[in-house]
From TrEMBL:
Full protein name: Efflux RND transporter periplasmic adaptor subunit
Coiled coil location: 108-182
Main location: other
Cell location: Cell envelope
Limits of the Multidrug resistance protein MdtA-like barrel-sandwich hybrid domain: 68-208
Family recorded in the similarity comment: Belongs to the membrane fusion protein (MFP) (TC 8.A.1) family.
Any Pfam family hit: RND-MFP_C
UniProt entry keywords in alphabetical sequence: Coiled coil, Transport
Source organism (scientific name): Marinobacterium alkalitolerans
Domain of life: Bacteria
Residues of the Multidrug resistance protein MdtA-like C-terminal permuted SH3 domain: 315-367
Gene3D superfamilies cross-referenced by the UniProt entry: 2.40.30.170, 2.40.420.20, 2.40.50.100, Helix hairpin bin (1.10.287.470)
Amino acid sequence: MIKRLLPFVVIGLLGAASFLIYQNPPQAQRGAPPAPKRINVEVQTLKAQPFRVQVRSYGRIEPRTQSTLLPQVSGEIVWINPDFRAGGFFEAGDELVRLDPRDYETDLAQAEATLMEARQTLAEEQARSAQAAADWARLGNSGEAPPLVLRKPQLSAARATVASAEAALKQARLNLERTRIRAPYAGRVLEKSVDLGQVVSSGTTLGQIYAVDVLEVRLPLQNRDLAYLRLPEEYRVEYGEPFQPPVSIHSDLIRPETWQGRVVQTEGAIDEDSRQLHVLAQIEDPYGEKAVDRIPLKVGQYVTARIQGVEVDAALVIPNRAIYQGTYVYVVEEGVLQRRNIEVAWQDDSHALIAQGLEDGDRLVLTSLGQVVSGTPVRIQGDAAEQPKASETAQAEMAGEGS
């Protein structure tokens, strides 16, 4: 009996279930589509303003005046100034090296004796000439006496002998003075090549010295920088001083030091090796008051320099880190990224002066980005106006649930 009723019970249950499903159909739970992911970026709002170009270069410190110290007479070195050593300072006129003067003192004494003898001979000839003129007149001769009678040739020869003796005496005094070798200017010793007891001649190198009043740096300039520099190339300036742009010399030998100088000369030709134009910068009085409590500049030391260039009135200057492949940047427009191709007018190690591609007021992206496309939504750091509002998100979710 039960086996007969079981199929009808199953059919009844299935029918009841179908009726319930028909009366209460399932509803899909649909929400708002997820908002696209935004990239956090840092931006800079560009503003055109005056910009002074600073051209960077490098070079090596050299003295403006450098000399090889040579004796003008021969002799044995009997004294050397204690400051005449590498790095020693000296003043103009200081005695640096002294040679044995005894031979030259003897020559001076002989020259003085020769001069005295020549003057005596001249005095005798003058007396003889005067006596001859008196005898000519006493004998009643008319007219002027002949030169031979008046001993004029002998008198001229005696005068010439005196002049020669005076010149020899002057030369002997000069040679004796030259045994004391003195500094031609205030300077510093670069190298000493001799020592006590050494016999030197007029061609022997005593050492290398240089003046400390001015140091120089020869600076190469890149061709792209020439348009932004005013260089001293005036010829026959009639009014005022020639223009000499300021330059800052930076030294990192022991600790960072900065020295101020000026570009005083522009070379007249392009260097054949580097194919660059060079200028000459000078630093005045580098060892005087400017060197107090500082590390003095050293000859041969490599330094960097920044030459003051022209001022661009309305310049758009951006950091180099915002430029990709040297040709384009990213800006934010209405909350999305936009790629902009740019043209760089001038560039140094950290900044670039833009000629075309950007405008005043553009929001330049400074954050380093990978491969992104224009139209990517972004969130600007620190800008509340760009953040998605919580109320708008809630309204979107409620709209999705009610649909």
